[in-house]
Specification:
Layout (H helix, E strand, L loop, with lengths): L2 H7 L2 H21 L4 H13 L3 H25 L5 H25 L1 H21 L1
Amino acid sequence: MNIIYFSIICSFKYFSTFIIIYLGLEIIGAITGGGGTATVALLMVMYIFGFEIIRGYATNTIPELFAVVTPTVIYAFYGFINIKIAIILFITNFIGGFIGVKIALKKGNDWVKILFTIVVIILVIKTLFF
């Protein structure tokens, strides 16, 4: 299902509700540094637009980029960023992202969905009990 088909079959109210919730998630993400909002946003994109997990993640990557860049610029302006640690985190994030995408594309949607579900369950258990 693509955005044109989505807009034809769904009412403006439904789409505007999606936008408001997505905006709220991004605001919370900017305040908390993520806090799982990207996961919820990914699930929304998958559900609303009917994407499989890899396409949903790939589509959601562009808005997430802006959701990260915007607070980064503001935090940098106010002097909150430790540049040495940020560089190390950037390099490891870049390498991990590169390797992760290669594995996801090789293994496919079903494998990624199972891994995603396992990670979410573990994080929910950790959050609730530890």
